[in-house]
Amino acid sequence: MKKADVFEFFRRLAEANPHPETELESGNTYQLLVAVVLSAQATDAGVNKATRRLFAEVTTPAQMVALGEEGLKQHIKTIGLFNSKAKNVIALSQALIDEHGGEVPGDRDALEKLPGVGRKTANVVMNVAFGAETFAVDTHLFRVCNRTGLAKGKTPLAVELKLEKTVPQPFRLHAHHWLILHGRYICKARKPECWRCPVVDLCAFKPKTPPPGAG
After folding, report:
1. How many CB atoms are closer than 10 A to CB 23?
2. Cα separations in angstroms, 21 against 12, 14, 212
3. Which of 77, 98, 138, 206 is catalytic?
4. For 146-181, what is each residue's pLDDT tens digit?
5. 109 flagged as catalytic
6. What is 32-44 written as a DSSP string?
7. What is the C-alpha to C-alpha distance for residues 35 and 15, in angstroms, rounded to an integer?
8. What gap in Å lies between CA 196 and CA 193, rounded to an integer?
9. How far apart are CA 64 and CA 89, in angstroms?
10. Over 80: is that where the pLDDT of 215 sits?
11. Catalytic-labelled residue, pool 120, 154, 201, 208
12. What pTM was computed for the model?
């Protein structure tokens, strides 16, 4: 995709949704970190349903450690992989207490050293909580970038590094949210809804999906 097209691509997404936000619910940076860890291979809606009661009780790493692994499991058992996620959340909470004074660090290396925190999770937390211009590549974003031709890559990291080079200002801060939401609601995995896509003419995907009932 040409530079001018990339700019226009994001300009249109920004026009449609000037202030995109994560769909994960949280009340502070610690809760955000926990929610992102829990969201791996799960839907944001499913995570929100499970964490509403949990986050009413637990707002700090110390409270999470006090709740314990079994207590946490009772809250999150509707989420996929809840056993390993509970173990990781308790371990990362203890690590935050031991190594960071109970505060979530804003540094990618420090975040990635926490149990259950990979690059994508670190990027989300850095972007949402600390305003860093990071690109968290989830399945939606990976698909949209490859399908449209915006940033092709065989791995999430390859796509992320390409976005680092190609996304212009003033779109860098919110770029990954626009792309995730676009993939979630319009550029869907099985059948992209090309007939209502605001960037359809800039996209390399062929053949475009016709509107329902056409032909």
Report:
1. 16
2. 17, 12, 30
3. 138
4. 999 999 999 999 999 999 999 999 999 999 999 999
5. no
6. HHHHHHHTTTS-H
7. 28
8. 6
9. 8
10. no
11. 120
12. 0.91
